[in-house]
Structures are given as structure tokens and as C-alpha cells.
């Protein structure tokens, strides 16, 4: 129980005085009757509280999740009590979806860190950003509410840096550039995304050539936003589809047995949610990507 010192709205006051829970989690606790104001249940987040009021919050024990734990082996780049950074392999879906109910990264994370089921949404516990099924590389997952809130804020403020390496079919006319084109669901194929002139969401991708060889180019990408399929859609819109991309390109694999598009989330830079220190995770290139670079004689 805490005594109120100054007038405020209930949810804002709780957000300032209960540091280890996110605002959305606190609002849920209010709505479900877990917060008492002067010994009476209060379910209005907009309730105004005044000096002298007494606020009590009850945090229920974690409830079992419907997501089945599955001890899938994970390549861990970094882990502590606040977060875990995984080097995701091609073929691993991030969160449960039709056809993938128990073989996803989320299933593996719940097996490794059971308490993560209470962080964020039910089907995406701890997940603050995602990678496509066949995109490899670094992905950060929050293990606490504080970390979840911090990582979300860093992504929104664009202080967290996500850098990728990709091999495209074709040769850009310049050494670097920025694609600033809005992305929305494809009007005819709902499984795809598309560049649109109006509507959709803004999407910005910065790119720089690393090496060229014949009709192939190794490009370093830096995301300013994180829309679904963003790099793949932007590359295709430039007439430079990613090697191996069967959705936004021809699927040309340059003679290498690729598990999917040649796109790797190479480097992730963020501030640690607790210490504030810079944390940088670099995901080694997968074997298929290395083989592709060797075959095309591309270097970085």
C-alpha cells in the first residue's frame, strides 16, 4: 500500500510509482480489479487520485500459457536477467501462427525461460521486433517488463540500430542511398506486402554497397523503421530483389542451395535496459550465406 502525495490519474500515478511493470500491464491490472483505492476496488484507469488516498495493487501469480514449451536448441549471442539475444537460423518462425503452433522461437524461449510468458502479448511474449522465417540473425527478446518497455521505446525512438547484410540480383547505380517508400498489405495477395503511394505505413531503409561481382551486389542495410518484409519489398521496388527470394523475386539462388532469401540480421546495437550501457550483438554469417559469398567472390 502506498499513500498518494499529489493529484494524478490512477494509471499515470501507478506508472510513476511501480517501476517494474509496463503501463499497459498496469492498466490491465486496474481493469481486472487488482487495484484498490482506499480499500475499494477501482477499475477505472482515469480515476483521479488526490493526496491522502491509499492505493494497493495485487499482482497475481503467473498463469499457465497455452503455448507449449519446446526445448529447441538456440544459438545465444547474449543473455542476462533482463534480455536474451538469439542468432536465429533460417526456417525458424518467431511466434506461433497457423501451421506453426509448437516449433517457433517463442516455444523455445518459454522452455528456456518460463516466466517470459507473462511479458508482452500472449502469443508474442517478450518479442519486440521480429525476423521473417527465412531471414537469419540477431533478434532481442525481453525477459522482464522493464526490458520490454525499454526495448520498445528504443525501437520507437530509433536509438536501437538494426543492421543487415544482403546479396541482391543486380547492380545499384550509386554506392549508397535511402529508400523512403510506404508499405502496405498487397492489394491482391494478402501474404505479401507492397510499396504504396498513399496509405500504409512509412518505411525507411538506408543502404550501402559493400562489394560487387558481375550481376550481384553485397549490400549493408540499416533500418530506420521495421515494417513487415521491409528490406525485401524495398529491394524489389528498386529492381534489385534479394538472391533466393521466391516471394519478391524470381528465387534465383546463384547456384547455391539457399534455405531462403540471402538476408542476415548481422548487427544489433542497443542500450541495456538496466545499466544503460551500449550492448552490441554480432551474429556470425550462416554457412549458406558464406558459401554464396565465396561462389560469387564477394567480400565484406
Describe this structure in words.
- β14 and β15 form a beta hairpin.
- The longest helix has 13 residues.
- It is built from 6 helices and 17 strands.
- Strands 7, 8, 9, 10, 11, 14, 15, 16 and 17 form a 9-stranded mixed β-sheet that branches. It has a 4-stranded antiparallel β-sheet with strand order 1-6-3-4. Strands 2-5 form a two-stranded antiparallel sheet.
- The radius of gyration is 22 Å and the shape is elongated.
- The model has no long low-confidence stretch (mean pLDDT 90).
- The N and C termini lie far apart (58 Å).
* Oligomeric state of the chains in view: single chain
Distance between the termini: 58 Å
Given the structure, what is the number of helices? 6
Sheet of most strands: 9 strands, mixed
Strand content: 25-35%
Derived structural class: alpha+beta
Q: Rg from C-alpha positions?
A: 22 Å
CATH superfamily of the largest domain: Pseudouridine synthase
Mean pLDDT equals 90
Overall geometry? elongated
Helix percent reads: 10-25%
Q: From the coordinates shown, what is the CATH architecture of the largest domain?
A: 2-Layer Sandwich
Order of helices and strands: EEHHEEEEEEHEHEEEEEEHEEH
CATH class of the largest domain: Alpha Beta
Task: Count all strands and give the number.
Answer: 17
Q: Spans of 5+ residues with little confidence (pLDDT < 50)?
A: none
The total number of structural domains is 2
Could you name the CATH topology of the largest domain?
Pseudouridine synthase
Amino acid at each position: 500500500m502506498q499513500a498518494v502525495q499529489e493529484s494524478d490519474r490512477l494509471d499515470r500515478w501507478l506508472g510513476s510509482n511501480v517501476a517494474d511493470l509496463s503501463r499497459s500491464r498496469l492498466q490491465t491490472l486496474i481493469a481486472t480489479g487488482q487495484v484498490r483505492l482506499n480499500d475499494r476496488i477501482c477499475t477505472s484507469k482515469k480515476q483521479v487520485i488526490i493526496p491522502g488516498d491509499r492505493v494497493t495493487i495485487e499482482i497475481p501469480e503467473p498463469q499457465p500459457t497455452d503455448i507449449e514449451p519446446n526445448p529447441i536448441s538456440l544459438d545465444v549471442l547474449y543473455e542476462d536477467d533482463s534480455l536474451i539475444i538469439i542468432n536465429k537460423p533460417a526456417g525458424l518462425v518467431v511466434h506461433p501462427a497457423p501451421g506453426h503452433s509448437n516449433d517457433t522461437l517463442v516455444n523455445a524461449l518459454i522452455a528456456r525461460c518460463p516466466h517470459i510468458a507473462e511479458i508482452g502479448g500472449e502469443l508474442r511474449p517478450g518479442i519486440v521486433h521480429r525476423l521473417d522465417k527465412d531471414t537469419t540473425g540477431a533478434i532481442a527478446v525481453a525477459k522482464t517488463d522493464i526490458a520490454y518497455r525499454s526495448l520498445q521505446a528504443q525501437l520507437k525512438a530509433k536509438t536501437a540500430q538494426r543492421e543487415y547484410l544482403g546479396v541482391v540480383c543486380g547492380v545499384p547505380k550509386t554506392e549508397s542511398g535511402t529508400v523512403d517508400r510506404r508499405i502496405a498489405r498487397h492489394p491482391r495477395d494478402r501474404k505479401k506486402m507492397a510499396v504504396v503511394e498513399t496509405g500504409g505505413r512509412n518505411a525507411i531503409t538506408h543502404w550501402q554497397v559493400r562489394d560487387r561481382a558481375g550481376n550481384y551486389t553485397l549490400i549493408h542495410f540499416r533500418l530506420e523503421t521495421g515494417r513487415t518484409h521491409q528490406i525485401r519489398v524495398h529491394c524489389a521496388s528498386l529492381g534489385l530483389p534479394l538472391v533466393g527470394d521466391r516471394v519478391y523475386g524470381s528465387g534465383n539462388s546463384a547456384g547455391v542451395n539457399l534455405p531462403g532469401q540471402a538476408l542476415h540480421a548481422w548487427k544489433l546495437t542497443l542500450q541495456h535496459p538496466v545499466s544503460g550501457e551500449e550492448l552490441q550483438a554480432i551474429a556470425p554469417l550462416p554457412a549458406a550465406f558464406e558459401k554464396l559469398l565465396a561462389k560469387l567472390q564477394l567480400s565484406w
